[in-house]
Amino acid sequence: MEEIETCPAQRLLKMLSGKWKAEIFRLAVESPLRFNSLLRQIQGSNKQSLATALKELEEEGLLEKTTIKLKPLHIEYNLTEKGKALIPVFQQLEGLS
Q1: Locate the HTH hxlR-type domain: which residues (predicted)?
Q2: Alpha carbon distance 11, 61 (integer Å)
């Protein structure tokens, strides 16, 4: 039997649960993300945990991965429309602390 969510924020909380996901989402709200920049910005993070979190956020449809074909070639992560739609909920959750 499928679990019924009683709170609108419950789905967002599930999507952002896991190491570094909420922090990555917060940073993505501010600007496009690059992997090495995230490594510097998120204290205590490592390549493997960040790569996993980015992949899972991409699979959830919150981030999209874009290859920028300028020299040097690099990859950026941006919020999708689904991710942008969740910003107000995320901001309300941040305001509770």
Answers
A1: 7-97
A2: 13
CA atoms within a 13 Å half-sphere pointing along the CA-CB vector of 16:
19
Helix, strand, coil content of the chain in percent (nearest 5): 55, 15, 35
State pTM to two decimals. 0.82
pLDDT tens, residue by residue, 66-76: 998 888 888 99
Our CA dihedral for 12, 15, 19, 23, rounded to 10 degrees, sits at -50
Report the C-alpha gap between 76 and 34 in whole angstroms. 5
Distance CA 84, CA 97 (A): 22
